[in-house]
From TrEMBL:
Gene3D superfamilies: q2cbj1_9rhob like domain. Residues 1-20 are annotated as: Disordered. Its cofactor is Fe cation. InterPro entries: Phytyl_CoA_dOase-like. It comes from Phytophthora fragariae. PANTHER family: PHYTANOYL-COA DIOXYGENASE DOMAIN CONTAINING 1, PHYTANOYL-COA HYDROXYLASE. This is Phytanoyl-CoA dioxygenase. The lineage of its organism: Eukaryota, Sar, Stramenopiles, Oomycota, Peronosporomycetes.
Amino acid sequence: MTTKRSRPSPPSTAPAPTSVLSPLDTFATRGWVCIRNLLSPSELRVLRDECDVLYARKSVEDIVAQGCVLDVMAQCPMRDSDSARVNSKCYLTARAKQLKSIADDHQVFTSLLFEKLPTVAGQLLADCTEVETPTEVFFFNEHYVVKPPKSHVEFRWHRDDDEQLAMSVHRETIVPYVSAWCALDDVTEANGALQFVSLDGPSELGNDKVENLQRRASEPVTAKAGDVLFFLSNATIS
C-alpha cells in the first residue's frame, strides 16, 4: 500500500470535550478506545458518498480478493519525491483530482484528516508517553474497509503494524502508531464488530492459539454510524 506522510495542522490548544478526555486513562493500558458520535452528520455523509464511489469502481470479486480494502489513492501512485507525500495541501489536491471531489467535500477532508482526527490521536499518544502536551502526529495512510453483502471475509487475529510495516527497514525502531477506524454504518456482532486483546496481557501473538486470544478478548465493540475507534498499531485485534 502506498503510504503518505504529511504534517497536519498543530493540535488545538482548546480544552477537548469530556467525551474525548475521559477514555485517556484506559487507552494506554488497553490500546483502544471508542469515542461516540465523533463524526458530524456532514462528515459521515461525505465519507459514505466517497466510499460508494470507490465501491462502484470494482467488482465484488475484486473487492473480496483485496481483503475488502478500498485504497483511496490506488489510481494515483506517488513517487518517493512527490510533494504529496510530505505536504498536506499537495496530497489533498491529488486526492480531490482523482476522486473528483467537490469543494465542500475537500474542506471536510482537510478538517477530518489533518485537524480533527490527528488532534484526538495526539492526545491519546501523549497519554501513552506520559507527556503534558499532545504528541506531534503525521498522516500515514487511509483506506475504506467494505464487506460485500453475503461475503464470508473474516479478519483473523492480527496487529496492524505487522501488516502495514512488514517490509519497513529498521522495523524494530518504529514506534506504534494510532489508527482511527470510523464507523460509516451501525456495527453489530453480526456484521463485523471488532474485538481487542488488552495490551496489559500476554503479547506473544505468534505463539498464541486462537482460543486463547478469544478467551482474553474484549466483548465485540459495537458502534453506531459516526463513532470512531482509535487503537494502537501493536494492539491485537480481530
